[in-house]
Structures are given as structure tokens and as C-alpha cells.
Amino acid sequence: MKIKEVADLVGISVRTLHHYDEIGLLTPEKTTEAGYRIYSKENLELLQQILFFRELGFPLKKIKEIIHAPTFDKEEALKMHRSRLLNKKDQIDQLISTIDKTLLTMKGEMDMSDKEKFSGFDFSNNPYEEEARQRWGDKALDDANEKLKSKSTEELKEFQDKFNDIYRKLAEIRHEAPDSDIAQARIHDWFVFLNAFGNYSKEAFKGLGEMYVYDERFTKNIDQFGEGLAVFMRDAMAIYADRLGEEE
Predict the structure, then answer these.
(1) N or C, which end of the chain is more exposed by having fewer CB within 10 Å?
(2) Where do the coiled-coil regions begin and end (predicted)?
(3) 124-134 tens-digit pLDDT
């Protein structure tokens, strides 16, 4: 579809689609020699995701980080959108009820308590944004990369040596059960190592493990230490993260 057709179908402006392209949020499948942007079915599916995130109050920068993360799962995102929109619907119903009661109070037909006057208002931060960022975002990776940039050549070599040592030790036991004591002990070393220069919550740690298998670039690099290591680490990291949650 051409850009004007997409704009008419969705009900947004051509200028908005131009902006999405310019910032790398939604890039058309191709651009003709004449300069016409052509959108594919996959582009439309991604646009739908973008608009759901926008409906839930996400800024464009956050949406771009999330939908282009290697671990982003479209089906899971749709389920989460549905859940949050139902919550939003409940809040809107509460606000409508507050308005109706206020009108009745103004007419002298009922009395509202001070608490009832503010029922339905919610000024807290968007919890879904943090949930999505942890699930699909790459904030932990961004933070880690920034810290690495500040290290000296000697510190970077020490980091690389430690990194390789942990991976070799994990590769040695990759045929063990991911929930075995030795597997969990060595995954603990990995968790501690990552948090020495990054900021990995249990959710981010688990998401990182999923990315090891989801993104073939990670899988290829990790499996250089031993075939099947990426899958083993993903499973062991998930178990470790779940156990951390149980301890809280």
C-alpha cells in the first residue's frame, strides 16, 4: 500500500507516517525510484502495535526501543495490551460514575463523601511502560555498554578474560540439568558479573537469556563455547530469576 492509502485506512496523517519513518520507528518495506513509500502487511501489523502502545501513553522513543528489541513478542504484546486496556476501561467507568454522582450531588439528589469525589483518578506512573521495558527493552544493555566505554584498556582485558572464563565454565556443564546445584551456582556467577557493570533485575536477566536463543547472532557467538550453551543458559537463567522472585 502507498502511504496515502495507509493514512486513510488507519486514520492518521501522512505527516505522522513520514515522521515515524524519519525516526526509524516504522520504515516502509520499500521506496520506489519516484520516492513513493510502499508499506507491506508486516508494516501494517507493526503500525498496529505502535498505535496500541500510543493508546496506552507510551512516548515514541520508548515504543521504538521496545518493538525493535530482539526479544519483542507480538502475540504476547497483544495479550498485554488487552489486559491493560481492560484496566483502563475499568478506570474510565469509575470516572464516569464519579461524574454522574457529582451531577446528582449538585442537584441535591445525593451526598458524596470527599473520597468519592476523587474516585477513578490515577496519577501514578505508567506501570505497563516499566513492565514492557523490562520484558522487551534493552535498558540494561544500554547501561552496561555505557559503563564499558568508560573502562581503560587494561580493565577491558580483565573484563574479557573473566567473561570468557564464566562462559567456559558454563559450557563444561551444559549437559547438566539447568536447575542442578552446579548450574545454578555458575549462573549466579554470571548474574553477579553482569551486575558488576550493569543493572540487571531478575526480569531483565531472564529476558536476556531468552534473547540468547531468540536472536541467532547471540546464539552463534555463545555456542562457540559449546553447542547448545545458549539454550542451556536461557533455561538456567529463567530458573535462577524465578527463584529470586520466590525469595522476595
Answers:
(1) C
(2) none
(3) 555 555 555 55
